[in-house]
């Protein structure tokens, strides 16, 4: 063999074999009969072997030609298979998605839903930033923010996931003695620290006088929940986090004044990005999230 064949050479040999003539092969390859004649002669000269018998009825492969044709078919199948897999990969979103949310939302709402997301979208990798501070989506500190707010930033886009409802919860062992309003004013409370951006709860507790009973302040909903579970006092907690906890007992009804919307937001420039859109759509239709938000 004087030289190596390239893919173009294999394509010419395969086209002639399948068409049975130069005219038919030329149509398939969108070229002219004379051009194809020169090309097949050049291929045979390159490898020093005749690949076709030129007959009046057409071109018939020689033994050497059959070997080249078999290889060409394998290359074609491999090429098509690779293209199909790559096309399928393009259809399946992949890559890195950064989500920012609070500790309570992660523990009570998002974490239970993550297994389903990993199963349905194995090519997406999540980075979750747990913080009670508001990440700036405009500066790409996160791709998706899932936050409680009744006034989402008008420069962002997203959807409302539901309504966060809240109530007073006590350790189950303490609950029997905290039934009346008077008892609530005597019980030790656990409240949100001033560093926690929670103006509605700060205002409500001050209006009720419960802030004077606070013995523990925390900048974390999950921290307040843990303190109540440990028997340190009572606190206002979201129903999605506390309602299913057997260690806690709800005292009184839902506090309607503390209802707040839960929003999932992203920057407008990112909303059509496949991986981000896929994650957002998953959370928006996730039944685990909607069921927990519906707890009253």
From TrEMBL:
Residues 5-62 form the HTH lysR-type domain. It comes from the Bacteria. The keyword Transcription regulation applies. Belongs to the LysR transcriptional regulatory family. GO terms for molecular function: DNA binding; DNA-binding transcription factor activity. Keywords: DNA-binding, Transcription, Transcription regulation. This is DNA-binding transcriptional regulator, LysR family. InterPro entries: LTTR, LysR_HTH_N, LysR_subst-bd, WH-like_DNA-bd_sf, WH_DNA-bd_sf. It comes from Saliniramus fredricksonii. Transmembrane segments: none annotated. Pfam families: HTH_1, LysR_substrate.
């Amino acid at each position: 063999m004087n030289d190596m064949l390239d893919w173009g050479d294999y394509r010419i040999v395969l086209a002639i074999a399948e068409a049975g003539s130069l005219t038919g092969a030329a149509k398939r390859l969108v070229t002219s009969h004379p051009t194809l004649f020169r090309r097949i002669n050049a291929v045979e000269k390159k490898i020093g072997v005749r690949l076709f018998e030129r007959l009046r009825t057409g071109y018939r492969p020689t033994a050497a030609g059959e070997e080249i044709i078999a290889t060409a078919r394998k290359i074609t199948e491999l090429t098509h298979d690779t293209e199909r897999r790559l096309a399928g990969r393009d259809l399946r979103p992949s890559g890195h998605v950064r989500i920012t949310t609070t500790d309570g939302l992660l523990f009570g709402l998002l974490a239970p839903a993550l297994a389903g997301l990993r199963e349905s979208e194995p090519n997406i990798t999540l980075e979750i930033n747990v913080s009670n501070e508001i990440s700036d989506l405009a500066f790409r500190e996160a791709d998706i923010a899932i936050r409680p707010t009744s006034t989402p930033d008008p420069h962002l886009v997203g959807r409302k996931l539901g309504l966060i409802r809240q109530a007073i919860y006590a350790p189950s062992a303490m609950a029997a003695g905290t039934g009346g309003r008077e008892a609530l004013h005597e019980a030790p409370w656990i409240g949100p620290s001033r560093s926690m951006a929670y103006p509605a709860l700060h205002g409500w507790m001050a209006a009720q006088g419960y802030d004077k009973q606070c013995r523990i302040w925390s900048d974390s909903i999950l921290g307040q929940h843990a303190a109540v579970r440990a028997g340190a006092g009572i606190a206002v907690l979201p129903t999605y986090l506390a309602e299913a906890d057997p260690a806690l007992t709800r005292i009184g009804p839902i506090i309607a004044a503390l209802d707040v919307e839960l929003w999932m937001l992203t920057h407008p420039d990112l909303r059509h990005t496949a991986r981000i859109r896929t994650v957002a759509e998953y959370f928006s239709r996730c039944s685990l999230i909607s069921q927990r938000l519906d707890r009253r």
